[in-house]
Amino acid sequence: MHTHSNRFLAFALLSPVSRALFLLSVLCLVGCTKSGAKTTVSGKVTLNNQGVMGSISFIGPSGKEVQGGLLDGAYSINDVEVGENKVAVKGPPGGMAPAPGGAKDAAKLTEVPGGPTAAAKTGVPAPRKYESPDNGLKYTVTPGKQTKDFELTP
User: Fold this and answer.
1) Is pTM beyond 0.85 here?
2) In this structure, are 95 and 139 located in the same domain?
3) What is the Cα–Cα distance from 62 to 94, expressed in whole angstroms?
């Protein structure tokens, strides 16, 4: 029993600054473990072997959504929730529309009012069926850095 009393007495004899630093370091150790793990997912989204433009979203098990841009299909997103994520892919806002030839001419784009200029055309638009998180695309995220490529179908 004297051991616990001696530890408390030793802590009590520390200066107020030393006690504060000790408690702060303990809180940091507790708060920085497990839940502080950083995750990064990067990769490429393609359609007919061409990079997709727009954005990609990962929706984690708790419903937390993180989003990143797609530049010629390439993406890198930080702080993705660990666990099974639903994945949504959206074309640019106001965006681009496929040429009138349909899916076979998906690489040919026509400007939509309010959409990007010709210089900003860096990929093909994703089919609208991938805009919903319930489109069937899923990825199980683990702590740390990882790469995941998605090949979309028309």
Assistant:
1) no
2) yes
3) 30
Q: Are residues 28 and 47 in the same domain?
A: no
| Amino acid of residue 49 | N
Q: Are residues 85 and 100 in the same domain?
A: yes
Q: Into how many domains does the chain fold? A: 2
CA atoms 139, 145, 147, 150: torsion sign: positive
What's the burial of 85, exposed, middle or buried (CB within 10 Å: 0-12/13-18/19+)?
Answer: buried
Domain enclosing residue 78, as ranges = 37-152
pLDDT of residue 105: 43
Q: What is the pLDDT of residue 38?
A: 83
Mind listing the pLDDT tens digit for each residue in 8-40?
555 556 556 555 445 444 444 444 434 455 899
Q: What is the CATH number of the domain that holds 103?
A: 2.60.40.10
User: For position 37, what pLDDT does the model report?
Assistant: 59
Query: pLDDT: is 136 or 92 the higher one?
Result: 136
Q: Are the beta carbons of 100 and 81 closer than 8 angstroms?
A: no
Residue 102 sits in the same domain as residue 139: yes
